[in-house]
Structure formats: C-alpha cells, structure tokens
Amino acid sequence: MPFLLMICMMNTNLKFLALAALINGTCFSMILPLLAPLTRQLHLSEFQGGVIVSAGAICMAIASIWVAKRKSQLSPKQLVNYGFWGMTFTWAIFTLMLYFGIHAILPTLFIFILLVLSRAATGIFMALPQIGLQSYVMTHASEDAERSKQMAMFGAMNSFGMIVGPFATSVLLFGGLLFPMWLAVGLLGVVSIALSILFSQIQMDGSQLEQEEKRTIEHEPMPQQSLIWLVLGFVTYVSIVTLNMTAGFYIQDKFYLSSQQSAIYFSQCMLVVGMCLVLTQLLIVKVLQLKLNSLVIIGLVTMCFGLLLSLYAPTIFVFQASYVFYGISVACLLPAFTTGAAQAVSQQAQVKMASFCTAIQALGLIVGPLLSTFLYGFNTHFPFYLLLFLMLFIGLYFCYFLSVGRKIF
Known about the structure:
Layout (H helix, E strand, L loop, with lengths): L2 H4 L5 H18 L5 H7 L4 H24 L6 H27 L5 H33 L3 H29 L6 H22 L5 H11 L8 H30 L4 H30 L3 H20 L4 H28 L6 H27 L5 H22 L6
Helix pairs in contact: 2-6, 2-7, 2-8, 3-4, 3-11, 4-6, 4-14, 5-6, 5-8, 6-7, 6-9, 7-11, 7-13, 7-14, 10-11, 10-13, 10-14, 10-15, 11-13, 12-13, 12-15
C-alpha cells in the first residue's frame, strides 16, 4: 500500500511521527540535485562531490550500529530529540559552509574539508530518529501484526523521503541554490520543537521496551528469500542517488549548459519524477491493485527503458522525458522492497529486518555517490551503464528464484 495512504490509518501521534520520519529522509536527500551545480561553483571534482554525500551515509551506518548496541541506555524520546536537534544544527553549519564556498570567503580545500565534516555530523544524527521510532513502536504497539505494520510504515516513510527531498528542492529553486537548504534547516527546527512538546506528553515505559526487545532480539535465522529483497533495495537506492547526482553533471556536459541552466533543467526533471511517482502510486492502489511480482517487473522494465532513453537522448527535452519512466520505476520498486522484506520474515524478526533495511539504505548512499562519480570521471555514460547492468542483474536474480521454485512473493 502506498505510503501516503497508509499514514491515514494511524492515530494522531503515529501520524506525526511518521511525518517526522518522512521529513528526516527528505531533508537528508535535498542536497542531491544541488550537488552538480554546487560542485562546479565550488570548483570541486565530481568525485569530491560524491565524497561529501557518502561521508554522511558512512557515519549514519556507523552511528546506527553503535546506537543499536546501546539502545537500552537511551529512551526513544532521547534518541528522536537528539537526532532532530542535531540534524538542525549540523545542517545549518553545512549550509553555511556552502554559502562561504560560493562567495569565496574561505579557500576551496578548506571548504571541502568542512563540508565533509559537517555532512558526516548530519549523518550521525540522522541515524538516531530511525532507531528511536523503532523503539517507540516496540513500547506502544500491543500486538505483533500492529507492530509489524508500524515498523514497515516508519521505514517506508524514511525511504519515501529520499524521493520527496530532491523533488522539494526542484520546486524551491526559484529562491536560489541555497534557499531549499535554509528552508530544510527551518523545517527541522520546527519538527524538533514539535517533537519535544509531543514526547513531553507521552510516558515512556522502559521496562516494557526491555521486555519487548528480549522477545524480538532472538537469534532467529533470516530466511534466504529475504536476501533478494535486500539486494533489490540496495540496487534501488544506488539508482536513486546516481540519477540525482550524476545526471546533474551529465546534463551540463552533454548539452553544454551553464551551472544555473543545468540546475533549472534538472529541477524540471525532479518535478516530472514527483508527479509520475504520485500518479503511479494512486493508480496502483485505486485502479491496478498490483501484486509484488508485478511491481518488481514494471519497476525494472521502466527503469531500463529510462536509462536507454537518457543515454541516447538527442535533446534535453528527450532526456527529461526519461524521468517519466524513472518516476514510475521508483514508485513500484520502493514499495516492493519494503513490503517484500517485511513479508519475508516472521513477526518476531521485524525489528531485525528493519535494521537490515536501514543498513541497505546507508550502503546504497555510500556506494552510489562514490562509484557513480568515480565512473563519471572516466566516461560520462559509465554510471548509466552501471545502473543498466544492476537492473538486468536483479531481474535475472528474480527469474532464477522463480525458476527453481522458491517462494519470494
């Protein structure tokens, strides 16, 4: 079920917390469509731009592991509050460093180091709300089925934020390159205040959390069919990041545009993706009611078609048309990943699977920027060929599982 329809089924507190999870992912990903024009304005290489994004993802993965092992020492309230307040201040510092770089207030190398450090700090604090929200579900969901649904919801909203972020940036570019970034700082600040007020009215039962964790952290082996969904999630996140980052450079170099022109054209691409994503999700639920296998097939086929169209686009308008297919693809693949992963394990293993899904997202955010910008330095087409190869690989992987009679859907 699409994310925005699922959230309507929750009570008021859970609706706001799910919205907070969406904002968490949205603000973290808003830099992606700005990376290409900002990298060129700051006189950095494509690979250096990728390092800036990956620094946050690496620290997010490390922080997730470190905090998860010490979760009993921090309440859900503390994790969520520390996370959002930390993101607010580190995001403000990151945006301020971009301002200094654009106006040449500090040397380029110094700006690059400060951007990496501030982005890394943002990644550390981004990990805290996800773990805090999982802990909140553990203490407030009374039944396994309800707990599983809410766990999947929070993970899905955070993943959906990876799409909403670039889309929101494209809409807000009328105020300049840094306007979306400053707006994200303000949004995080408002959410931080609202969460502080909300959690002050909610009593956290620590003994119940400890009891539930003992029950769900059993060393239950993960079913083999869950691996294919994790691979699908990894490929999807790598695709999202690559198409948001490398395409910005690609537009500028292929069609000989200035940084400002490429930002405008790419913002239009994000508008196309956003509209297609929403329309596709509404069609899936209201009209088509597709099952998991259909979602995967449609998602993979449309992604491959979009990649081929991007590679051989003779004009910028044909290139922008390829984002229609990217929007359809992501609208199918992200729900398939989160739903398939949740259905592949028992109710008792939902927390463990949620942790794996978070790790997969972080891994995609690490590998995607580094690998795509590294390949772009050799040939502008290589990142698109990489995605095409990954899509064909995951398609063959699914076909293999089906051919040997294993149940994955």
